[in-house]
Amino acid sequence: MVRFLSVVPVEEAVRVATGLARPVGTEVVQIEEAAGRVLAVDVTADADLPGFRRSTVDGYAVRASETIGASEALPSIFRLAGRVSMGAGAPFTLGPAECAYVPTGGEVPEGANAVAMVEHAEVLGGEVLIGRPVADGENMILPDEDFAAGEVVVPAGRRLSPQDVGALAAIGRGSVEVRRRPVVGILSTGNEVVPVDAAPGRSEVRDVNSYLLRAFCRERGCETRFYGIVRDEPGALRAALETAGRECDALLVSGGSSKDDRDLGARTIADLGAVLVHGIALAPGKPTIVGRVGEVPALGLPGHPASTFVVMLVVAGPMLAVLSGDTTDRSRRVRARLAENVPSARGREDYVRVTVRDGTARPVFAKSGLLNSLVRADGLLRVPAGREGFETGDEVEVLLW
Amino acid sequence: MVRFLSVVPVEEAVRVATGLARPVGTEVVQIEEAAGRVLAVDVTADADLPGFRRSTVDGYAVRASETIGASEALPSIFRLAGRVSMGAGAPFTLGPAECAYVPTGGEVPEGANAVAMVEHAEVLGGEVLIGRPVADGENMILPDEDFAAGEVVVPAGRRLSPQDVGALAAIGRGSVEVRRRPVVGILSTGNEVVPVDAAPGRSEVRDVNSYLLRAFCRERGCETRFYGIVRDEPGALRAALETAGRECDALLVSGGSSKDDRDLGARTIADLGAVLVHGIALAPGKPTIVGRVGEVPALGLPGHPASTFVVMLVVAGPMLAVLSGDTTDRSRRVRARLAENVPSARGREDYVRVTVRDGTARPVFAKSGLLNSLVRADGLLRVPAGREGFETGDEVEVLLW
């Protein structure tokens, strides 16, 4: 089914693309391999953490009430009843006017309800002088204060950070259920496109997009499968898309830069499934296709790398996140002041490449079709469809690469 | 040599740690595997890119001077002398009052010096009417406009982004010289520390730091080698450090939380090399050691995961960057307004865990020694040593995780 649709707003294109995606299945991995993977189910604590009353300082466990009014001039005096060793528990109970030495991380003995820091204590023979009052619970953690039994420690949908992995270790989870890595199939098309190791003939260009797309998808935690540079010939493209559709969770078709080539892409995707969006009110990136091959979501991307990259950030990124089951917002947005006017046409979202230094955003002079701006810029300034650009001095939000 | 030094400012600790590190050696990788690796040498373009005069639109190549004064009412009229195909070059030269169709990305023929967009052209039989003037060079890219022969395309020291890999592909570099991944040796110490799959006895805790450190180092592009949980016993720690020092480019020793344990770490590092910093004016993270085992830089980290993580971000991160030959600043800093007062002691840098939502930073109530704040916060607010905190409404900079 070929539908020639009108250009749609970015928001709608994203809605359609994410609507086509379904989270992939799951697998179990050891936590030392889990960083960067997406947690598939909430992980809860089996037991309280730390599970015992833990001192946060090197000091003396005491009854807080017995330090009321203590000062350097008139300290409270305690009998040193014992010393707690790390990892050995506190096998005694403190009575009135007794204290015990507890190292940082050690257990606070029964009978005590606070820890006075060594800095405020003086040891004289078998006695300890505490020169400052401590409050009930001071310098200690309660047994369930870090995580309580049954509490969600890391929620489903989180792309696991090093800290998350640390928290999983803390509650004793040696392995976790994560989403498998989505497999993204990548096809390059265009008669003008030659492999990277070929010397381009006159007016030919090297295949940049397949490298750009592979690196982008892997950065987002996907596996990639490359189906080569397909000639602008209906049978070849159809065969490649059919194979890729059977083997992958999503497809990215990097178009040639000519209109004929793009139309071939759209017709072939339509024949094998459907084209739902054909053209986005987005610059650069307008000639984008959102569709499916069978039930597999497929994006037809503009031929030029700079345009393709904007579409990857704005449309493909959210789609890959849904496939990955990833609900973490890891986008890097910063606010900055504009150093120059940025004109823009009303009615489309413009993404302007900018550098950001010391809070100042400066547009990179980027003629359409140049690749160097992608390497030189730090990110993209989005000009909403309803605006005719921004002025020097405006505070803007930049999406860092 | 044991040197008991006084607490040093964060800046000095970072200077010492980075001064101990030397960039590791290099290896050659295919560019499809190069994303995230650090480029070891400047990569320059062998030839101009695109290497031919390339149209950035679908349109008609013309002599700009022949469109002066053109309007819809009074268009300039050209004879359609030919059509350029993608990737096939433009094997003809335009004469006066001649034009040629050129698709986006196609070569602009000799004789022409601009391209008029199809939107401003009308074809009538063998003639094309151009209804708007174009300037010299409009809608086309010059042969060396993306990259000129000899120009640096991606500089040494860059951790390669997807876009960088795309640029390498564009200039035909199928492989590049990158730094090998530094090998970081990780040791956990502490008698109270048990493996993750063990049920902690009373007042024992699981080994969180080795997981946190492995994930952190891998996120920074390093390989890691784990030397296990070493008992607080001089011979065991010494043997493990000697082995690790022979096998690794840097060492991270996660201390137990007690003072005795930390002192053992410092003495052992001093015996095998030197301790250069013992204590940093940093909270959390004060009991940190910067030293070397032989010539291999070694950090002794505080036992508590939250403190360790701050030291990793603030001190170890820059050290690993030097080892990696990485000069890219990929830190994620955002400006935000404080929702609450943040008190701090003058004379030390405080790193306060905060959430950031819609431009507002809110401190996470984080008792020293709690792990949950690392999972719940979005990043760290740095309070410089010279300040006594911040007030509600202050604009602050947050280092996102």
CATH T-level topology of the largest domain in chain A:
Molybdenum Cofactor Biosythetic Enzyme, Chain A
Task: Name the largest protein-protein interface in this structure.
Answer: A-B, 97 and 98 residues
Q: What is the β-strand count of chain A?
A: 26
Q: Mean pLDDT across all residues of chain A, rounded?
A: 92
Strand order of the largest sheet of chain A: 7-4-6-5-9-8
Number of helices of chain A: 7
How many domains of chain A? 4
- Termini separation of chain A comes to 36 Å
Oligomer: homodimer
Helicity range of chain A: 10-25%
CATH architecture of the largest domain in chain A: 3-Layer(aba) Sandwich
CATH superfamily of the largest domain in chain A: MoaB/Mog-like domain
Write a structural description:
The first copy, chain A, is α/β, with parallel strands linked by helices. Chain A folds into four domains: 10-24 and 181-323, Molybdenum Cofactor Biosythetic Enzyme, Chain A; 26-47 and 159-179, Molybdopterin biosynthesis moea protein, domain 2 (Alpha-Beta Complex); 54-141, Molybdopterin biosynthesis moea protein, domain 3 (Molybdopterin biosynthesis moeA protein, domain 3); 332-400, MoeA, C-terminal, domain IV (Beta-clip). Chain A is 21% helix and 30% strand. Chain A contains seven helices and 26 strands. Chain A has helices at 10-20, 162-170, 209-219, 234-247, 259-272, 305-323, 372-376, and strands at 26-30, 43-44, 54-55, 59-62, 76-83, 98-102, 114-117, 121-124, 127-130, 140-141, 152-154, 175-179, 183-189, 193-194, 205-206, 223-230, 250-254, 273-278, 282-283, 289-293, 296-301, 332-338, 349-357, 360-363, 379-383, 395-400. In chain A, helix 1 crosses helix 6 (305-323). Chain A is elongated.
